[in-house]
Amino acid sequence: MLHRAQPGRDLYALVENFFRNDFQTENELITEAVRRMLDAGGKRLRPRFALLAAEAVGGDAAEHLRLAAFMELIHVATLIHDDVVDNADTRRGVNATAVDFGNRVSVLAGDYLFAWIFKNVTAEYAHPIPHVLSATLADITDGEVLQLRALGDLETTFANYVEVATKKTASLFAASAECGALAAGASPFAVKALRDFGTAYGIAFQMRDDLLDLTADEATLGKPVGNDLRERKMTVPLVLALESGDREFRSDVERFFAEDDDTRERIAGIVAGIGIHGGLAKTEAALAGYLERAKQSLAPLGNAPARTELAALADALL
């Protein structure tokens, strides 16, 4: 099989150019709301996964830009809904959609965008791509519900966490890689390799996001530091710290979740406890393990240049 990468092509620029010149729905208000979210930035990792997967099996990235864009738009729709569910004020350093447009328009915008995407996907792409994406959306929603049910649940295990991360975050990375490969005519063996890569990478990506919420600054995050703790989310550093922490630390976390005290000082104390009891270091180790698993899954792709780029995206998380 021929493996090629376009010389000098910039996948990020290709995606940005597509959104700037070709994205338009039939509803002007929703198009504006989505464009604001797109203009706020982002790494466009999901569309890059789709394009790199297509290239890794011999495809031309330029021929699959529309499919790649759908991957980012699914992500944007989930973010619009997430900000309503989480009552968030900011996203990527700008106002959340609900702040500018209100909750009702935001919910409808997310719903419309999902429907618009699937209307186009089912019209333009053969089985199994529409099935992969519809199953992915079901997984994302299921993961969100599982996360909501686990809020403040100190009995959450690492396995519980991985299940949520797999569905809520990794499923779209996996689907992006899988659909890019399918659209380019990949063999079942290559499709599975790329899907496995996306799954392992996505779990590591969520772990990194959990770490950044505790250790980065607000300018870097584009949202308040410690936001996950404020929302009582059982992120992986907290889960791992509780597994090895003493009774005093556990009681402190219980009090924090029960109190209405989310000052910076109080959150800093919880973060310090997570660090003392190994939550941050163990998360780094688990993250590295999933990234190694992701890179190993690419072995069936041989020496495709796009394989090197996918592996580099994994290394960048470290």
UniProtKB/TrEMBL annotation:
Record PROSITE patterns: POLYPRENYL_SYNTHASE_1, POLYPRENYL_SYNTHASE_2
Gene3D superfamilies linked: Farnesyl Diphosphate Synthase
Entry superkingdom: Bacteria
Transmembrane segments annotated in the record for this chain: none
GO process annotations (BP): isoprenoid biosynthetic process
Keywords linked to the UniProt accession: Magnesium, Metal-binding, Transferase
An annotated Gene Ontology molecular function: metal ion binding
Keyword Magnesium in annotation: yes
Cofactor(s) annotated in UniProt: Mg(2+)
UniProt keyword Nuclease present: no
Membership in a protein family: Belongs to the FPP/GGPP synthase family.
Official protein name in the record: Farnesyltranstransferase
Organism of provenance: Vulcanimicrobium alpinum
Classification lineage: Bacteria, Bacillati, Vulcanimicrobiota, Vulcanimicrobiia, Vulcanimicrobiales
